[in-house]
Write a structure and sequence with these properties.
Elements lengths: L3 H11 L5 E2 L2 E2 L1 E2 L9 E2 L5 H13 L11 E6 L19 E6 L4 E6 L3 E3 L20 H9 L3 E2 L4 E8 L16 H4 L3 E3 L19 H15 L4 E4 L5 H7 L1 H9 L8 E11 L2 E3 L11 E3 L4 E2 L11 H22 L28 H17 L6 H23 L5 H22 L24 E2 L3
Parallel strand pairs: 8-15, 14-16
Antiparallel strand pairs: 1-2, 3-4, 5-6, 6-7, 9-14, 9-17, 10-13, 11-12, 12-13
Length: 458
């Protein structure tokens, strides 16, 4: 990514306050890195970027922000009347959106649509992702006819804060890899520093290796977590460089002065998603994808730590420039949406269900199934068993969806089961171990599978 430095400069111009040392950007180091290379804002980089961007767009009158909406599906050719020639390329004209405040479905049209809906970590029981990360964009893309790529490559972050199973938290807190970059090491509860026997880089090995190693040690010992020992970092340096992590640990009752933070691996990042080219274009005309919902080819089978923010910025800029270029060539007419040809939302025959308990039950079953059978370590027997149950649940949920008045929980459930299905199907196609996809019955990489896994709805 040669464009990266320019995007960093642009963020600074927008008001992002990155951590500096003596007038120069402070560079952090994380798992798999050979040198310090990460521009950051203490341990809250994402929040700082979001703050500055929201402040910037608040002063731009042309940008209208619609809050409390939930995207349901894209408006594409299959949503239009049949007078269109079937051989015409599928086109996106906007979305159906659920207005959470009115409980009504609205049609939002656009000359170009960019989906940037984030990840799908909530498909697993333990995840660093917020509750809204239910794979909505990937599921929408699949239903619309997008090519979905490499969904088997799910990255598990090795060090999320261990929460007791009875705590019932929607997502676990992330202990940044930069803590290990600063010198912290992983140890079993009995004090044994185990990472050196798995990789010569020790606790700074890439995430997939560290996550599998922790998983293996926990299975051998029966322990529910391992420790991240921050004593090599030093308490004063830890408080200064990672103030948010320090405060969260204290709020959870962890005695940080002892230097031991309990951690476990959790679903963190999806390297797969809606397939795009290097301009962010999908195979559907006028539809772009950006960020974690997309599969741009940058990450391959295993994302290097902290590359995702940079990728999102670079491809957002590429999408902007492509839309600008096509608009100037009049290949995109932002004012020619054929409103008369768009079907109104039809919920005739639907009713408010009395069985909402089914949604929470199905959500938990999907998460448990994916965590047990499609997690850090996989095999074909588990995948086949998972697929049988996921397909059955998908049929049950679709039936429930089409006869029930909408709410956010139902929409998320529909998307979760779709994403689970895509992950399982993709994993079954790759009969090898590569990057984030580790199969005990196919433990080696194979030249036969040196290609992308692509799924598309028939």
């Amino acid at each position: 990514m040669t464009e990266g430095p320019e995007r960093i400069k642009e963020l600074i111009e927008f008001g992002v306050e990155f951590t500096n040392e003596k007038g120069k950007l402070s560079l952090g180091r994380e798992g798999g890195h050979s040198k310090n290379r990460i521009v950051h804002s203490k341990d809250l980089t994402g929040r700082e970027i979001e703050r500055a961007l929201l402040e910037k767009i608040s002063n731009i009158s042309q940008i209208k922000i619609l809050e409390y909406y939930f995207a349901i599906d894209f408006l594409t050719r299959k949503n239009f009347k049949k007078r269109y020639k079937p051989k015409q390329k599928n086109v996106c004209y906007g979305i159906y959106a659920f207005n959470v405040e009115t409980s009504k479905v609205e049609i939002i049209t656009a000359g170009t649509t960019i989906i940037a809906s984030g990840g799908a970590g909530q498909v697993y029981l333990h995840t660093s992702n917020p509750p809204i990360a239910t794979g909505d964009g990937v599921a929408m893309g699949y239903r619309a006819g997008c090519e979905i790529e490499n969904m088997e490559f799910v990255q598990f972050h090795p060090t999320t804060l261990y929460e007791h199973p009875d705590s019932n938290v929607p997502y676990v807190f992330l202990i940044s890899e930069a803590v290990r970059g600063a010198g912290a090491v992983l140890k079993r509860i009995d004090g044994y520093e185990f990472m050196n026997k798995y990789d010569k880089r020790g606790s700074l090995a890439p995430r997939d290796i560290v996550a599998r190693s922790i998983d293996n040690e926990m299975k051998k010992t029966g322990d529910s977590f391992v420790y991240l020992d921050i004593n090599p970092v030093g308490l004063l340096k830890f408080k200064e460089e990672f103030p948010n992590i320090y405060e969260v640990c204290i709020s959870k009752g962890i005695d940080v002065s002892k230097g031991l933070i309990p951690v476990v691996p959790a679903a963190h990042y999806s390297c797969g998603g809606i397939r795009t080219d290097l301009k962010g274009r999908t195979n559907i005309k006028n539809l772009y994808a950006c960020g974690e919902v997309s599969s741009t080819g940058v990450h391959g089978a295993n994302r290097l730590a902290s590359n995702s923010l940079l990728e999102a910025m670079v491809f957002a800029d590429a999408i902007y420039n492509d839309i600008l270029y096509l608009s100037s060539k009049q290949k995109i007419n932002l004012n020619s949406i054929p409103l008369s040809n768009i079907y109104e939302w039809n919920d005739d025959g639907t009713e408010n269900a009395d069985e909402w308990i089914l949604i929470s039950y199905d959500k938990f079953e999907i998460k448990k199934l994916m965590s047990d059978f499609v997690g850090i370590v996989r095999n074909m027997y588990r995948l086949k068993r998972a697929l049988r149950r996921i397909k059955m649940m998908k049929e049950e949920i679709d039936e429930f969806y089409f006869k029930t008045k909408l709410n956010v929980d139902l929409l998320e459930l529909r998307n979760l089961v779709t994403v689970a299905y895509l992950i399982v199907c993709s994993a079954m196609k790759r009969k090898e171990s590569r990057g984030l996809h580790y199969m005990t019955d196919f433990p080696f990489t194979s030249e036969k599978f040196l290609h992308n896994t692509i799924l598309k709805k028939k």
